[in-house]
TrEMBL record:
Xref: SUPFAM superfamilies: Actin-like ATPase domain
Domain of life the protein comes from: Bacteria
Full protein name: Cell division protein FtsA
Record text on subunit structure and interactions: Self-interacts. Interacts with FtsZ.
Amino acid sequence: MFELYESQRAMRNMRKAAMQRGVVAVLDVGSSKIACLVLRFDGTERGADSGVGSLAGQAGFRVIGAATTRSRGVRFGEIAAMSETERAIRTAVQAAQKMAGIRVDHVIACFSGAEPRSYGLDGKVSIDGAMVTEQDVARVLSACDVPDVGHGREVLHAQPVNFALDHRSGLSDPRGQIGRELTCDMHMLTVNAQAIQNLAHCVKRCDLELAGIASSAYVSGVAALVEDEQELGAACIDMGGGATGVSIFMKKHMIYGDTVPMGGDHVTGDISMGLQIPMAMAERIKTFYGGVHATGMDDREMIEISGDTGDWHHDRRQVSRAELIGIMRPRVEEILEEVRACLDAAGFEHLPSQQIVLTGAASQIPGLDGLASRILGSQVRLGRPMRVHGLPQAVTGPGFASAVGMCLFAAHPQDEWWDFEIPAERYAPRSIMKAMKWFRDNW
C-alpha cells in the first residue's frame, strides 16, 4: 500500500500547513448547491491515539464562516461545465470569507459522483521484536494485496478497519502490544480519476489550493450516524440533488461506499414534465406540497399552478395533491430500490445491527422514512448532522450533512493516522517494485 499513500501525501502536507496557519475551508460540491464553511483551528494538537477509530470528536476548531449558493455545472455529483462550477465555487467561498472576515487559501472538498467502488484487502507480517511498533503497522499496511482496480481509477480512501495480533482480533490500534504475527483488514474506495482531476483543476482555477478530498457518502455517515450506530453497524443514505450516497459503517469505520446516480433533482424533473411547468416552480411545489403517501384528503386538496405562457387556461390550473404524489412516488421508489441493491451487494443483512439513517436534502420528503422502511426492510430514521462549534442555525439541516462531515474529517482525517514512514531496508521487494511502478506511471 506504500504507493497509494504516497499519491496523497502532497495534499496531506498542504492540509497540515493550512492547519498551522489556523484557517481552512471545506467545500461541498453538490448537484443542487455548493456549500462552503470556514474553520478556525485553535492550534491544539490531538494525540496520536485520540483520533484512532473515531471521528466523533470536534475539539480544536470552530466554524467562523458559512455560505451556500445554487450549484451550476454539476450533474450526478460530477463537474459537467467547468466555468459555471468555477463561478459557483467562487461565489460560495467569497461569501464565506466575507462572513469570517479572513481570506482562505486552502480548501478540503467532497463530491458524490465518480462511480465509487469498494474493496476489502488483507495483509500479514511477522513481528521482528516483541512489541508492535509504528513500523510494523506500516509494513502490514504495505503488505495488503491491492487488486487490479482498472485503468483510470484512483484510490480516494484506504483505511484499516481491523487488526489481529496472533489469535486476538478486533484490535483498533495494535501499537505497543506483544505478539508474533500481525494481520490487517483494510477497506479501499476507488473512484474515476477524471472526476478528481476535474475537481482539482476547478479549485485551482478559483485561486485556491486543494488540501484534501473525500467522498460525500463517507463524510455524510460521519456526521449523521451517532457513535453507537457507527460501532454496531449502520448504513447512511445521503439523498442529494443529483446522486444518492450509500455508506456502511462498522466498528466506527466505513466498510462500504457506493453512489446511486439519482436524487431529488430527478423527482423535480418528473414533476416538471408531468405537470408541464418550469423546474423552479416544480421545486417549489415539491417542497411545499410533496409526499409519497396519498390519503383520501389529498384528492380534495388542490394546488394552484400559475404560469406566464399567455394561455389563460394553462396558466390558471389546479392539480390535486394526490396527482402530485402519484408523480413523485415512482421515482422515489426507484431510488430506494437501487439503494437496496447496493446494500444487498454489500451483505448488509449480515451485520449485527441493521439501522438505516436517511439524510440529505431530499430525505425531507414527508413519509419517506416509512416508504424506505418497507422497501429496505430495516429500521429507518431521519438523521441530522451533529452540531459543531459555531455552526449557524441555517446550515444544521439534513442537506448539510456532507458539509458538517467535512469539518469532522478535516479535524480527524483517518487516512493520516496510519501514514507512517517505512525504513527503506524494511520494504519487501514486491513493495519496492510497486513503488517504482507508481513513480514511473505518475511522475
